[in-house]
Amino acid sequence: MATKSEPSILMLSLLIVVIFSSLPSLASRPSTPPSSSSKWAPRFLGRFAKPPKQNQQHQAQYRYETRYFSQRLDHFSFSDLPSFQQRYLISTEHWLGPERLGPIFFYCGNEGDIEWFAANTGFVWEIAPRFGAMVVFPEHRYYGESMPYASANEAYKNATTLAFLTAEQALADFSVLIRELKRNLSAEACPVVLFGGSYGGMLAAWMRLKYPHIAIGALSSSAPILQFEDIVPPETFYDIVSGAFKRESTSCFDTIKESWDVLKSEETVDRTLKKTEDLSEWLESAYNFLAMVNYPYSANFMMPLPGHPIREVCKKIDGSPEGTGTLERIFEGVSVYYNYTGGVDCFQLDDDPHGMDGWNWQACTEMVMPMSSSRDASMFPTYDYNYSSFQEECWKDFRVKPRPRWITVEFGGHDIKTSLKKFGSNIIFSNGLLDPWSGGSVLQNLSETIVALVTEEGAHHIDLRASSSEDPDWLLEQRAIEIKLIESWIHNYYQEKKAISNM
Amino acid sequence: MATKSEPSILMLSLLIVVIFSSLPSLASRPSTPPSSSSKWAPRFLGRFAKPPKQNQQHQAQYRYETRYFSQRLDHFSFSDLPSFQQRYLISTEHWLGPERLGPIFFYCGNEGDIEWFAANTGFVWEIAPRFGAMVVFPEHRYYGESMPYASANEAYKNATTLAFLTAEQALADFSVLIRELKRNLSAEACPVVLFGGSYGGMLAAWMRLKYPHIAIGALSSSAPILQFEDIVPPETFYDIVSGAFKRESTSCFDTIKESWDVLKSEETVDRTLKKTEDLSEWLESAYNFLAMVNYPYSANFMMPLPGHPIREVCKKIDGSPEGTGTLERIFEGVSVYYNYTGGVDCFQLDDDPHGMDGWNWQACTEMVMPMSSSRDASMFPTYDYNYSSFQEECWKDFRVKPRPRWITVEFGGHDIKTSLKKFGSNIIFSNGLLDPWSGGSVLQNLSETIVALVTEEGAHHIDLRASSSEDPDWLLEQRAIEIKLIESWIHNYYQEKKAISNM
């Protein structure tokens, strides 16, 4: 099928050139399992988390000071290791100060440059004034400027230097930083509220669970803390991506589903086309990404995109004149995506001095998220998760052995309803069901104060973004509930403090 | 004063000979700050935690299997380090098994040989049958047979090899062990209840807080989790020890209080007596220890002692004929203590290959417990805690820099009422007010399910000991409440499980 009007080699080559000149980061590694590699689960957005200059101009500019804090490399041993400088952004502009117990809003930095996250987390900046809150954005170790061993080159040298890039160490960094910040400001009694999206949302939830004495609550947005082991079915992610396309149009879904074979047959037609595999991977990444940022209005998260971008992609795929070949339709479709990105710099490669990459290391060590692609519900090539080959590739790339069961030992996940029903408090798990990561997140209330906010039309941590005149009602409502809940945490904290000091 | 009838040099030398031949471990290190060293906080009982053969015969013999489990040396990094074998004792004799969700009673091994703790924690063994519980006693890393680097010699070689002797690593050991044990037995759904006394009680409480998904509750007996930084006044410990003596007799307290100067003047009289300082330290240790095991009936915890041993000591001190000198009285008094110990082997030194010692390492790294001796309320020489000299001695001994604020960053402690009032559940903090460690423990309920059981007449984790015909009513009652609470945890857990599986 679809062999008559296949796009010319020229067109495909052009496509690849566009890909490689505009978004090399997407294609530079196999980033989805279905095609050739079993290794990489889909990425969060952090991969792109270095501010593209053009985009930056369109972002709201928030005012903060940049500071550095000396951290231990291993908080959990007394090995004699060099310390490193953790960068953090701080604004006390609206802070009520220590006497009035002004809150501290603390964003759990995730896998990328913290300035970029600060620029893309408008919600925190916007609500800080009404709470009289200080705002702190600490950078995650091994990302951005927060490099152990003085440089990314050294930090990413090998498994020995990368060994301390773990979530637990990052949480300890945050905790030590908060403690010392508070000490310096005589602000020990000020309540800390955590925020985070994606992996940062996982960190925020885990930190509230592990360091309840440090932070009184956490807004954990789009955080797939259950995407480990067999807690959710491994097909979940790709099924949701696929569902987002099917929801717009069955024929769009079908066209994409049949395109993989066509792409393969292209390869047999022209054996000089070495990049077919990369092309498949890039297409898969593009679909995943489109599902994550399937926002209801035009947004400029990684790149400028129209509102309901999947709808737009499918319109193109479906709308081509009769007789248009499969690949040509696909090409038309994803042009919605890459056409917008022509101006984006090659912003990832220089973060990645040895072909290594922080998130890949994390995925190969702790963040082992099994992913399969189902036969029917998925529009991607069928694929069964294969731990052995995953492990082999991690060994090849990093000389490290993954610990696939560690995260749930350390942070839980299995049977989370029983274990947290009477334990813990003050966590919001917010999710949009269009987001493929929602499938591994907490979508039901676990207790009275560990609550799930689920929106039908939401995508990847849209609630953390700056407000916009185009915000739909459900988003306004979601944010209002979040504000109310955070207010109640702080209010209750003040009440407790008062009750105890009156005793 | 008290210079006329000072004990002869012979008598003092004899005393020292007795000390060194019977209980060298007590005197081999400065173990209390007041005299010469600022370094050592009083020890828990674990110092002695190798089974004295004679005592062992009198202990109930519990049946268990001894097994070994391979553990990572650093759970929180991916450094390429050798694994080690953790020993654990296990009994499934009374276990209901996985289908009936039989509970798992898990004792958090503390700073010593686990067989000794198993022999001295009769409560767990005695109540296991009525719960249909499995019993597991895992050994703490770097103690007993659970040595990294294959031997104590290697493990205790230097700061590099000792680096991984931390409480957090021990908790991770426990958590990984439980997870793998359950997996092997298909017992994932079986509820785990933690037990621990002293440092082990701290571990139990911290583990319930940090790994709520692994264990449903903890009985944390005599666990001074607040004995850090400035959370409780540094005089607390010695004031309580002193109070236990004053309570029996003011003149006893006074005699001890004046004895230190007399001892010092002895030193000036006979400069060949190099051991005066050691003698002071041994006396201090003896008093501390007597306060800890000031049980209401004769017991054989470390050594056979009469009931109310402090009363007996004071009877001797006070009851000597008029004209008896201070040191002679002291000598008569502590004979209650060491006379019982003549048969005890030198059981500590061989645990301590390089003059190093696990607990001293822990005290020099994380477990920094400031201790002062007050001018009036304490019967010990006045002493103000001095962190600088403490730090210096740690550097001299181990080449390690303490982290005095780390424990409260990792586990909390400051303002614990506010932080745990609405967070956490199912912890019993049991304490006897005679125990000097009770001053750094949780003595008030923190919430409905984080409760304090305080007994006026109790001493160091007496509730964990095997029942005895001499148990006073308050102890029977305390244990009955503990059993009831544990029953309620398990009952609630079963209810939750049922409710969720019915959903």
Automatic annotation (TrEMBL), chains A, B:
Q: Name one GO biological process term.
A: proteolysis
Q: Which residues form a coiled coil?
A: none
Q: Name one GO cellular component term.
A: vacuole
- Asked if Protease is a keyword of the record, the answer is yes
Q: Which GO terms describe its molecular function?
A: carboxypeptidase activity; dipeptidyl-peptidase activity; serine-type exopeptidase activity
InterPro entries of this UniProt entry? Answer: AB_hydrolase_fold (IPR029058), Peptidase_S28 (IPR008758), Ser_carbopepase_S28_SKS (IPR042269)
Question: What would be one Pfam family of this protein?
Answer: Peptidase_S28
Q: Where is the signal peptide?
A: 1-27
Give the SUPFAM superfamilies listed for this entry.
Answer: alpha/beta-Hydrolases
Keywords from the UniProt entry = Carboxypeptidase, Glycoprotein, Hydrolase, Protease, Signal
Question: Which family does this protein fall into?
Answer: Belongs to the peptidase S28 family.
Task: Return the PANTHER family for the record.
Answer: LYSOSOMAL PRO-X CARBOXYPEPTIDASE, PROTEASE S28 PRO-X CARBOXYPEPTIDASE-RELATED
What is this protein identified as? Lysosomal Pro-X carboxypeptidase
